[in-house]
Structures are given as structure tokens and as C-alpha cells.
Amino acid sequence: MPGRGRTSWRALTATSAAVVLLVVGGCSRDEGAAPEPSRSTAPAEETPAPTPTPTEVAPPEQPAAMAEPTTDGAIAAATYVLALYDYAYASGDAGPWDAITLDSCTFCVGVAESVSEMVAAGHVTVGEPFRVETAQSVEISEDRWFSVDMNVVQPPSRGVDQSGATVNENPGGRFRAVFALSWDLGWRVDEMGFEALDESTAPLP
């Protein structure tokens, strides 16, 4: 989850769906974006940690509502993306995350790199998944562009090494999650971002 496995955070704030959509409007599907680390792992030891055995975590299933380019479908897709985030950090497998996110999404690229670093350090994340409190979607262009605005809760989590020892902790918190999604025979994440809703909540990367 955002901030899991970190000893420090960088803020990546999406203040409104309009801001995210402006970012998307300036990007093509082939345009890359310089990634910013989603989160850091514990400092590497002098002796490289062995690659951990993949944790037995089942990937999430796509909701049936994702089959259509509608506002309900966009909300289902955004919820699925949050589940993929949880899965990537719990299992060390960022493949499904990469399959639905585009290189134009700086946050998304950073997540994939962060998961890779976590695996190289021999760590995984243990914790409960995101909870969605509220969600709304706007169809920007018919059957093509959608925005999704959610309030979500990230439960506390911790990073563990291969022995099961805790290496770092994240207190979680409440966040606003904003997505810019597109439909092209399936959903893609063009951009996304998070904003802490409570002062006591650590900002997401």
C-alpha cells in the first residue's frame, strides 16, 4: 500500500480530477515520464539479500463492471487498480500492475520500481487492503476518457524480511485518490495521485 515498506515518503498530490486530466491531455500513449520512487525499502546490507520466495497471494479478479466503458466501469477499474497495488506489495509481483498502467503515469512507474527494490531487498508487505469510502466518476469523452475521485482508507502495514521480522512500519491513513482512465478495448491508467485527508496521515509517495 502507499507508503508501505518505507522509512520516508515523498508527496505526490492530486488536488483535483481536472489537474490529472490536464496531465493526461498532454501525454500520448507512447510518451514516457521520469519516474519518482514510490517508496524506499530498508537500507541494503553489505551482503546482497537473496531473492525471496514469492509469497502465496492470489492476484485480484477483475470486477464484472469493468467490461464496459461507463462511469460504473471506471469506478470498478479504479477499485481494481487499488487491489493490484496491494497485491504487488504483498506478493512482489508487479506484472498485473504494469499490464493496466501506462508509462505516462509517473506514480505507476514509481510503484513498479519500488516493488522491484523491495523484492531485491528480500522484503514483502503485510497488511489489510485499501477500503473505499466514497467514489464518483465523470465521463470526459464518450466511451473514451473518464475521471474517478475516491476517498480511501489505507490500514496500517509493515514490511517484513524472509525470517518474518519487521523491518519497517506504515501507520496508514485516509486519502483522496484521483484517477485519469482511458478505454481502448479495456481500461488503462493514464495518471493517478493521492492526497492525505487527515493532518496525522503521512503523505503518499
Can you offer a commentary on this structure?
- It contains four helices and seven strands.
- It is of the alpha+beta class.
- The protein has a domain of 140 residues: Nuclear Transport Factor 2, Chain: A, CATH 3.10.450.50.
- It has a four-stranded antiparallel beta sheet, with helices on both faces.
- The chain is globular and about 50 Å long.
- About 25% of the residues have low confidence.
Lay out the secondary structure:
Blueprint: H1 17-25, H2 71-91, H3 95-100, H4 106-120, E1 124-127, E2 131-141, E3 145-154, E4 157-160, E5 166-170, E6 173-183, E7 187-196
Antiparallel strand pairs: 1-4, 2-3, 3-6, 4-5, 6-7
Instruction: Extract low-pLDDT stretches.
Output: 5-55
* Major sheet attributes: 4 strands, antiparallel
Beta content: 25-35%
Strand order of the largest sheet: 2-3-6-7
Q: Could you say which structural class the secondary elements and strand pairing correspond to?
A: alpha+beta
Approximate shape:
globular
DSSP helix fraction = 10-25%
Nearest-integer average pLDDT: 79
Rg, Cα atoms, Å: 16 Å
| SSE ordering | HHHHEEEEEEE
N-C termini distance: 10 Å
What is the name of the CATH class of the domain at 17-24 and 65-196?
Alpha Beta
Key structural traits:
single chain; 205 residues; four-stranded antiparallel β-sheet; 4 helices; 7 strands
